[in-house]
Amino acid sequence: MATAISSAPTPASLMEKLHLRDSQQDQSSILKGLEKLIQSGTSPSKPTLPTLDKLGVRELPGDIDTKQIATSWLLTFAKYAQTGDVNGVLSLFVDDAFWRDLLAMTWDFRIFQSTPRIKTFLADRLALSKLSSFGLNESTVELKQPYPDLVWIQALFSFDADAGKASGVVRLVPVPKSDGQLQWKAHAVLTNLEELKGFPEKIGLLRDPLPNHGKWLAKRQREIDFVDEEPKVLIIGGGQSGLEIAARLKYLDVPALVVERHPRLGHNWRTRYEALCLHDPVWYDHMPYIPFPPTWPVYTPAMKLADWLESYAHHLELNVWTSSTIVKVEQDEATQKWTVVVRRGENGPERTFVVDHLICALGFGGGAPRMPKYPGMDDFQGKLIHSAHHKSAKDHVGKKVVVIGACTSAHDICAEHVQHGVDITMYQRSPTYIMSTKNGMPKLLGELYSETAPPTEIADRINASYPNPLMKLMHQRVTKDIAEADKELLNGLQKRGFKLGWGEDGSGFLYLAWKRAGGYYLDVGASQLIIDGKIKLKNDSEIERFTKTGIKFVDGSELPCDVVITATGYDDPRTAVLRILGDKVANKLGPIWGISEEGEINGAWRDLGIPNLWYMMGNLAMCRFHSKHLALQIKAKLEGVWKGDRYSA
């Protein structure tokens, strides 16, 4: 991903300028328009891909000894790093390089792009980080050529830092020397904290080795009730994000309590609309410690995931209080500890905990459902609900239904209504990025997350080694490839008048997800229903007002309906925190989701501006990877390993 440039036209306005709504367009004009959109987002001040042409490489030798090259680079890198030789380290990088650090050297999530930025970072942190014990993972060394003009050697390595054990990924690109020979320099490096010094996870050989004869059940109940010890961390929310961070903390020996207001875990998955199903494949979605079994469907139904979350908490022995609510939360400014009053059960007793850390795990929907406001809504005599409250299309048989919105939930709900024979119209307010899962997911994730991909922990490191600004550049190309593969689908949508978006600067799906958590639909069948006219489409005029019997538009047209479902997303997750802590912290609380100027997610899993307050969120994959980072930060603060000083330069 990359930072949005305010002077660049928005994707919607560019789409209109390029006439991508024209129903007579063919696929070649769609791709030409996409190319123009990509070019409009490039400038000399932005990073670029390390193409062979840019590097000045005309020809590659036929025999490239990748292991020797990677070994030599890492040995030299280790020598300079261990002696604190900043200029020596810089000599191993191309000018337009990236260095992403996840806690290992900065105690933060940071991206340094270009050698001047990297030099400042290394001057400040290299000696303090005390890097040592470098080792190359030889089995991971590969020559990669994702496109004819892009070639690099990719390798994973391990090392020790002052904080603990760490992992790294490097991608080396060819650079010509003065004698015409090639040398290989780093274009991207990831340094990632894996384990705190002296505080490993209690897994594998470190699990409890002793038998437990007849004492487990009683012991487990005392743990859940916190009879013998108080929690050090309280987690608000028992969805996947809350459970995954609870699991990470448990196996770092940090007692944590998950407070879930609903009677069962998985409530938000179990009670959403019947048609809800994950559009990420199972290989991408594994959770810490217990991966999904090989019998699991590729795309997980919501109800199945809800049951899985219950079993996950049970098998990992997580301490969860369901049907429990937060009555009061206060922070002591001197100690920075949190006093939290929890009511257990609907009318049960209240208990007060004083904890070191408070985690809000309230997800993307932690904010309230975002309901659009139009004149006349109070006059509408039909049913008007947000998609968060929609249950089943069976409730609307024989009625005319309009869905306001054109992203994932809107498509799912419209398709569900078609299956039940309901007259359904989608009202599209702005362009939507469309990508079929059949063609798109293999191109986006297949190399890292598939049946034949590397182990998840390896895939996660490689995935993280693409800093978001670099990932955005790569995905501009991938988005074009997917559009070519989806040309029949996209042509059909164009002919129906569907407004196609392409994401920021033509970068497609993932950047939209990281920046907006919306704006796209990963097609699993609803697009064809639009093409076939089974889902009616309205997008040629803005809504003027609601009437008693339907919706009136600015162009004078009217759409009679009995039911309106607004699939218009949720408030910012920040609002959920403010509902718990009160508006008094509004000036201190930073943004949670969205992209920072450097290209990192703003506040999830890291500093929110209020000491010892955290927000855990993301899809299953992001929670899997970043739950470890959040748990390591909390453990390091509890043990005094880290005093909370993040590198901010």
Automatic annotation (TrEMBL):
Coiled-coil regions listed in the entry: none
GO molecular function, one term: NADP binding
Domain of life: Eukaryota
Matches recorded under InterPro entries: Auxin_biosynth/cation_transpt (IPR050982), FAD/NAD-bd_sf (IPR036188)
The keyword Oxidoreductase belongs to this UniProt entry's keyword annotation: yes
Keyword terms: Oxidoreductase
The protein's name: FAD/NAD P-binding domain-containing protein
Record organism: Gloeophyllum trabeum (strain ATCC 11539 / FP-39264 / Madison 617)
